[in-house]
TrEMBL record:
Organism: Paraburkholderia panacisoli
Domain DSBA-like thioredoxin residue range list: 3-187
Pfam family name, one: DSBA
A GO MF term: oxidoreductase activity
CDD domains with a match to the protein in the record: DsbA_FrnE_like
Domain of life of the organism encoding this protein: Bacteria
InterPro entries: DSBA-like_thioredoxin_dom (IPR001853), Thioredoxin-like_sf (IPR036249)
SUPFAM superfamilies from the UniProt entry: Thioredoxin-like
Name of the protein this chain belongs to: DsbA family protein
Length: 210
């Protein structure tokens, strides 16, 4: 049985769900987990104006209330000429997967989430992403520097691999993030769409495993 997690590091509900996802994985260490990057706003060219900021702050408040996740609102409000393009950060997670296939991609995913939502980092900038990604892999014991990370992130291989994740997201007919699917006996079925509690997901997984 494999659990498929589809999300985007710049999706606030995915950020709120990270704690639940971590709880699931820790409680079921033998469970195979596949991380698929969804591309929430991949390729967007729209500058985040005041109305866009307020829209996101409203969502953040709901996520915070439900999940307890903390947000750096001041960093969002202070952004100037920020284009909310999520392709670069999705590609950064894919880059980590290409560099170190055995790395815990959920932890890398979480590092980019914290960088955006708490540190106020520009997760659309390749050099910034390379620093975050390399640090996350180094913390897990891998010898990867930011220069090497950036080179792979900028490669055609990483771009194509990221687009493959987006294509899989469309194939799975994902309608919201985060989404969970279960692959069992060669068949894939949707487990949840949107925020869910670890307890409810675990209960379903245990039932399926039985």
């Amino acid at each position: 049985m494999k659990l498929i997690f589809v999300g985007d590091p710049m999706c606030s509900w995915c950020y709120g769900f990270h704690k639940e996802m971590t709880t699931i994985v820790e409680a079921m260490p033998d469970l195979e987990v596949q991380v698929v990057l969804g591309g929430l706003a991949a390729g967007s060219t729209k500058v985040l104006d005041d109305a866009g900021k307020q829209f996101r702050l409203t969502h953040w408040a709901r996520v915070e209330q439900l999940s307890g996740a903390q947000f750096n609102r001041e960093a969002l409000l202070a952004r100037k000429n920020f284009v909310y393009d999520t392709e670069p950060v999705c590609r950064a997670v894919v880059t980590a997967r290409l560099l170190e296939p055995s790395a815990d991609l959920l932890k890398v995913f979480g590092a980019f989430q914290r960088a955006f939502y708490m540190d106020g980092a520009d997760t659309t900038d390749g050099e910034v992403l390379a620093e975050i990604g390399a640090s996350a892999l180094q913390a897990a014991g891998f010898e990867v520097n930011a220069k090497a990370f950036l080179a792979v992130w900028a490669s055609d291989e990483a771009i194509q691999a990221t687009h493959a994740d987006f294509a899989l997201t469309r194939e799975l007919r994902v309608s919201g993030f985060p989404s969970l699917f279960v692959e069992l006996d060669g068949k894939i079925g949707q487990l949840s769409s949107g925020y869910a509690t670890a307890a409810s997901v675990q209960q379903t997984l245990l039932r399926l495993a039985a």
